[in-house]
Amino acid sequence: MSTYYCNGNPNFLRCVKPEVLNDLQSCITYFVQNTTDCSEKYLNNNEGLSDKEQMNIAIEYGQCSLMEILRAENIQEAEFNECFNKNYDETIRSPILKK
Q: How many domains does the chain have?
């Protein structure tokens, strides 16, 4: 998930902590350090799940992680949404995600 937020679609972190996007390793470290609650909740004990169940967990983990990072940075969801909607740039989104 960190690769998605740091490299695949950095539009999210541009509205949270844009300076971490300057270096992929720093961004991944930042993401991992600030999503520990969600990691514990969603990434443990997922063996034997169907593909659909795994996809649902991935989606929920991604949403949870973003909310956890917003809390860590003391950013209100409405403030984030305004920034995201105003500044979203399709050109920085990885072409792999468009397939």
A: 1
pLDDT in tens, 60-97: 999 999 999 999 999 999 999 999 999 999 999 887 77
Mapping DSSP to helix (H, G, I), strand (E, B) and coil, where does residue 23 land? Answer: coil
Domain that holds residue 43: 2-90
Three-state DSSP state, 57 = helix
In a domain, 98, yes or no: no
What's the rounded Cα separation, in Å, for the pair 99 and 97? Answer: 5
C-alpha 7/C-alpha 20 separation (Å) is 11
Residues listed for the chain: 99
36 inside domain: yes
Q: Please give the structure tokens belonging to residue 34.
A: 């600030």
> pLDDT digits over 21-48, tens only?
999 999 999 999 999 999 988 887 777 8
Domain annotation covers residue 95: no
Name the pTM for this structure.
Answer: 0.84
Helix and strand totals (H; E) in the chain: 6, 0
